[in-house]
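Project channel, design review

CF: Before we commit to the Cardamine amara subsp. amara constructs, I'd like one complete example in the thread so the newer folks can see what an input/output pair looks like. Taking F-box protein.
RD: sounds good, go ahead.
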Amino acid sequence: MNYKGKIALFEYGNMWSNGSMDVWVLEDAGKSEWSSKKNFVLPSSQTVSVDMSHAFLIQATSHSCEIRLAPERMSPRLPHSAIYDLEKNKITKHIQVMSLLDRLGMLPILETNFWDDTERIMYLEI
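CF: and here is what came back for F-box protein:
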């Protein structure tokens, strides 16, 4: 994953139970140095707009510290994804995708990515 243009590890197993996630950022790849843990907690006022009683996945990240949260499986009950801005600590956008799935006859699993993920090519050496 990506956090501010650097490789990051997101642990978000508690996202749907208490709205929290932990992030570690690779600061120096040559020395395998990772940052201290950063903890993000989505305010309870924001969890109302996303049904957190179901498992959500981080499907993509952007260089502008946004992550895309989407339910594991799309359904009429969970018809949208949300964009969560880590820096602003709030959900900034909702994306309705159910009508697209119905129209295209697609399965309820939808993989997407942000433009940041495809417009830049970066080779990683470990």
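RD: helpful, thanks. The longest strand covers residues 20-28.
CF: Residues 98-104 form the longest helix (7 residues).
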